[in-house]
Amino acid sequence: MSTTTEATPAESAAMQRALLLAARGVRGANPLVGAVVLGVDGRVLGEGYHRGAGTPHAEPAALADARERGNDPRGATMVVTLEPCNHTGRTGPCSEALIEAGMARVVHAADDVNGAAAGGAQRLRAAGIDCVGGLGAAASLELNERWSTALAAGRPFVTLKSAQSLDGRVAAVDGTSQWITGPEARADGHRLRGLADAVLVGSGTVRADDPRLTARDADGVGVTAAPGLRAVMGRTPVPDDAAVRGEGFLHLPTHEVGEALDELYGRGVRHLLVEGGPRIASAFLRAGVVDELFSYVAPLMLGDGAPAYPDLGVGSLADAARWMLDDAGGPGVRQFGADVRLHLRPPSAAQT
Amino acid sequence: MSTTTEATPAESAAMQRALLLAARGVRGANPLVGAVVLGVDGRVLGEGYHRGAGTPHAEPAALADARERGNDPRGATMVVTLEPCNHTGRTGPCSEALIEAGMARVVHAADDVNGAAAGGAQRLRAAGIDCVGGLGAAASLELNERWSTALAAGRPFVTLKSAQSLDGRVAAVDGTSQWITGPEARADGHRLRGLADAVLVGSGTVRADDPRLTARDADGVGVTAAPGLRAVMGRTPVPDDAAVRGEGFLHLPTHEVGEALDELYGRGVRHLLVEGGPRIASAFLRAGVVDELFSYVAPLMLGDGAPAYPDLGVGSLADAARWMLDDAGGPGVRQFGADVRLHLRPPSAAQT
Q1: Can you give the residue range of the structural domain that contains B145?
Q2: Mean pLDDT, chain A, whole residue set
Q3: Predicted ipTM of the assembly
Q4: Per the annotation, does B278 bind a ligand?
Q5: CA angle at residue A342 from A340 to A345, to 5 degrees?
Q6: Rounded CA gap, A85 and A117, in Å?
Q7: pLDDT by residue (tens digit) across A2-46?
Q8: Closest residue to B299, CB basis, from A308, A340, A344
Q9: Where does the record place the catalytic residues (chains A, B) (predicted)?
C-alpha cells in the first residue's frame, strides 16, 4: 500500500467540494460536515453531508451515495471536513463504517474536538488505513466556530428566532402583535422548532400570547418529531391553564441566562431555540451566547411599538457587533411570502 | 389591410412578455413601459423597455432591437403596455416613430393619462394604422399605480431611501451613524441620487452630517449627470458653509410636505429622492406620498438608538400599511456586500 502524508491535488479539490457540501447542512447540536469519496483514479464516486441531528453523518451519506451510483468504495479515499467520529450516538461510529467499507485512505480537515467522539483517526490507523489531517482545517473550523464555542462551554448551541416589522418592532403601540409576519414565515418558524431539542420563551410571552410552542407545519426534512422540551424562563409563575403546559414543559424560574443554559444542558439539550420575547432576546444577546439568528422581517412600519432588542447596552455604532449573512442550509436572505428572512451568524472571533 | 379590433393569441402572449419587460425599468418620473415587435407570422422581431427618464421610450427601443437583429419592422405589429406618446419631450413622439417605421398595427394596454403626451392612438389611426387598446390594461395600470397617483396629484414621484440597523435604528444611543451600512450599499444609494431630479434632506441632517448630496459612484445606467436640485427642508437656517450649498442648492423653509412638493414640482421636479433624516421620512410617510422605498438594512443591532420612523401615528398592527416587495428594476430583496436592500412599494389601492 502506498502511503502519502501530503494531500494530492485531487484531494484538495475534493476538500473544497466537501466544504461546500458541509454548508448545505443545518446548524444545531451537530457540526456542519461534508464528505467526498474519491476513487483511485481521482474520480468522485460519491458525496454527502450531515443534514442535522438524528440523520446520518457525512461519511455514511457519501458511502450510500457512491453505492447508489453503482460505485464500489473499496480501496477509495474518504475526504471529509471533520475527523471521523469514533462513538455510537444516534448513529454508529463512522470509523467502523469506513473500515467495513474497505477505504484505503482518509483525508480529514479539522480534528474532532468532541471528547466523546474523538479518536477516529487513531482507530482508522490501527485498522491499517492511511490517515491525513489538517487539509482545509481553517475553513472547517470557521464554519463550525460557534458550534465549537458552545461545545467547549458545555452549553447548548443557541438559535434565536425573531419576527419584526421593518423598523424593528415586535408589537404596535397598543400591544397588538398577531401576526406581524405572514403564514409562510410563521410556517418556517415552526419548522425551526422541529430542529431543536428545546424551545424557550419568557414568562411574559406566555402571559401575552399563551403559545403552545409545538412544531406545527414542519416539513419533515431533518426534523425531530417535536422539540423535546418547551421551556419558560422567568420568575413569574406559569398559569395552571397555560397552553405550554403538559409533557415536555419546563419552568426555569431564573433571569440568569447562564443558569437556564446549565439546567437545559444538564437535561441533555444540545440545541436550543430561543423565541423571545424581546427582553429574553436581548438577555441572550448580551450574554454573547446567540450562535445564529433567524430574523423574519415584515415590510411594514410600526413606529413607536415595542422594540425587538431593548436594553442591549450598545452605546456607540463602533460597539455594535456586525453579524454576517449565513448561507448554511440555504441562502442567507430569503423571501417567505410577503416577508424576508435573514439568517445571520455572529462576527467570527478571527475578525475581532 | 385587414383590421381586427380583438387581440390575437400571439398578441396576448406578446403583451405578457411586454409587461415583464416593463418591470425591468426604473421607477421615477416616467411610467414603466415594455414593448414587443410582432411579425406578420407571429414571430417576435424585437423587444424593449423604458430604462428611465432621459432614455429612449419602449417602442423605439423595441424597433432598434428589431433592426439590430436584422428584422424589418415594416408591416409588423407593435405590442406595448402604454398608449404610444404623442409629444416631444427629451425624446421625439413615439406615434411618429411608429408611422415612420411602417407599422401596420399597434396593440396597447393602458391609455396614456398624461395630458401632454396623450392622443397617440388618434394620431396613429389618422395615419391609417390599425389601433387596439385595453389588452393587459389592468396589469399595466397596477404596475404604474403610484406613478399615476403622483401625476394626477401634480406632484413629483417620491422615492424614500433609508439606511438602518436590523432593529430599525438610524443612529446609536450616542448619535453615531457613519456608517451603518457598508460601501456597496452606500454606492447603490448614490446611484439612486443620479436617477432623481432632486434630492431632499431635513435641515437637522444637514447640521448632523453636512452631506454633499452629490451622485458619487453612480454606475451610469439610466442616470442623469447628477440630481438637478439639492433641497433642504425645514425652518432652521442652513449654515453658510454647508457642503450642500452651491449651484442646485434650494432651501425649503417649511415643515409641510405638501408645500415642499408644490415648490419642487413648480421647479420642474418630477422625481424626488427623500433621504431623511427620520423626522422627514416619517413626515413623508404620514402624508401618504412615498411611492417607493429603498431600505438598506445592516445586520447589526443598535438597541435604543434613534428610530428610523418616529411618530408615525400607527397605533395598532391592523393600522399599519403592508408594503410589498417590488421587483421593478431588479429583485425586491438584494444583498449589497454585508447588507440587504429591500425595494418596497406601498399597498395597492386595489387591496384596500
Answers
A1: 9-151
A2: 91
A3: 0.90
A4: yes
A5: 175
A6: 5
A7: 445 688 999 999 999 999 999 999 999 999 999 999 999 999 999
A8: A344
A9: 59 (proton donor)
